[in-house]
Design a protein that fits this description.
The structure is a homodimer. By secondary structure, chain A is an alpha/beta fold. In chain A, the strands form two sheets. In chain A, strands 5-4-1-8-9-10-11-12-13 form a nine-stranded mixed sheet, with helices on both faces. A four-stranded mixed sheet of chain A has the order 3-2-6-7. In chain A, helix 1 crosses helix 8 and helix 3 packs parallel to helix 5.
Chain lengths: 304, 304
């Protein structure tokens, strides 16, 4: 059962207190795919300019990422530049140059339209809706969004909510979208508008799954050194959806486990620049971190 | 095996967006005892002025709190006034009037000196050391502190660390004490100075236990409505130490469970003003919340 992602394919330039990366592979579709492909093959849809380092992107093919949905257009690739402060929780966007991404109209290749699992990365909700018009009968659709669309494209975003199974947002986004600072009430607001589940990503404070009458909490994996937080949210989504696609199991207990895979992937993402960490690890390393995540929270109500 | 707490006994006046409480029972020893006594008898040591509403305090006796260590001195009782903002995570201290607490020198009654489990509430570390000089052979000593002592009484605080088994602090305090913004590195700094365990309280983001080569994370219990955050940290300590005293079990798995009892008690504390919630509930309600805390984080690595 195939897993489709539609999102940005970018070149990120990042400065952190520990170093900098220049024009490294980035974007929501790239981070998502790098993580998810450790668990399940991925079909990627996006757009790049003629200047994109295609050789680097092609390396992803060998990892089970089908790039036939990535089109090349005349013009500059999407570029983002950012700088992180010392505690890595605040970041400053130095520039955003949309390039060809500004005119992106996702076309899903015929061979991707049977996708069972779909992740709509953070793009214009009108385009996210266009993607859903092209896929035939997905079993589980998850979408991300951001403050820019919450303010600028609210009606389309509300329409999107009616058509997705799960919204993945961070805590500031859900507060902005719902007008409620209390994330659990905010989650209920979302659930009343279509999705069966909401995933709220809280960065260093972990993530929460709300839906099916349950709340599930997964802490961020405690790392001694966080190197570069860029892409952690999309890697989380990659782990979450990758696990769901790999198991084909949409029961609440398996969605809990999907959250843990998400958290594990988010923790790998921040250990290096760009998608570098995902190129170093294998499935065994992921499983090991999932077990470590369990060790982090496990307790017996009646200990020996 | 007895459980001893030394700390403040205060009158709190609190304003929140949801109402206000005037001169309600407060202070670290009171919140600690109200929570801990649901699990195990408590011996309380503190000081009040002649104006303290002793009838209200006496109600605690019926709950298994031995008040023979609470002395009455000429002068005004410790009073604190605070106001919380809409999201309840920021608070403004309106006044702090130490009264008789300014001259508090804890004297541990002879009948309390055999205490096996000791919680040193947030008082001058020199006084915390004096308490330890008076108890004979405690099995497990935990201490709280605050920014005021971290800055003003650092040498005494470092001496105290050498003599306690566990330090309970909040995230801003451990950062200030260690000079490291990264709480896991900061925890290691503490562990190198004496304690076997550190508990870092992160308010709405839960709490972390570090020690014995393990990290254990417990999320804050998700409440639809938080009413008044005052005392949550001391109630956490009460649940933590109350469970340890009740079970007499200092193994790492049981300390994990103690963290969960701490979190459960913290969540009860914030549901009402002052210690009101603890007067409404019983042990069964605590056990139920402990199970709900497990449901919040439990997952199977191989789900059905």
């Amino acid at each position: 059962m195939s897993l489709l992602v539609v999102g940005s394919v970018a070149l990120d330039s990042v400065e952190t207190p520990f170093g900098s990366a220049d024009e490294a592979l980035g974007g929501s579709a790239v981070f998502f795919s790098a993580a998810a492909s450790l668990l399940h093959p991925v079909q990627m849809v996006g757009v790049v300019g003629r200047d994109y380092p295609m050789a680097k992107l092609q390396r992803l093919s060998a990892r089970g990422i089908d790039l036939r949905g990535v089109t090349t257009m005349d013009g500059e690739s999407f570029r983002w530049g950012g700088r992180y402060g010392f505690d890595l929780s605040s970041r400053e966007t130095l520039y955003t140059r949309l390039g060809v991404f500004a005119n992106f109209r996702p076309t899903i290749p015929a061979e991707f339209r049977d996708a069972a699992y779909v992740f709509l990365g953070n793009i214009d909700p009108e385009l996210q809706l266009e993607v859903l018009d092209q896929v035939k009968a997905p079993k589980f659709v998850a979408a991300d969004t951001m403050n820019f669309w919450i303010n600028g494209k609210r009606p389309a975003l509300l329409k999107l909510l009616e058509r997705v199974d799960c919204l993945l947002v961070n805590d500031s986004e859900i507060r902005e979208l719902t007008g409620d600072w209390h994330i659990h009430r905010a989650a209920r607001w979302i659930l009343e508008r279509g999705p069966k589940y909401v995933v709220i990503k809280k960065g260093e404070h972990g993530a929460v799954l709300v839906g099916s009458g349950q709340i599930f909490y997964v802490p961020a994996f405690p790392l001694e050194d966080v190197f570069d937080p860029t892409g952690a949210g999309d890697a989380f989504a990659g782990g979450f959806m990758g696990h769901i696609a790999r198991t084909g199991n949409l029961t609440p207990p398996n969605l809990r486990l999907a959250m843990v895979y998400g958290s594990a992937m988010g923790s790998f993402a921040v250990e290096r620049f760009s998608i570098q960490r995902f190129e170093e690890i294998d499935l065994a390393a992921v499983l090991e971190r999932v077990k470590a995540q369990r060790e982090l929270v496990h307790f017996d109500v009646e200990p020996v």
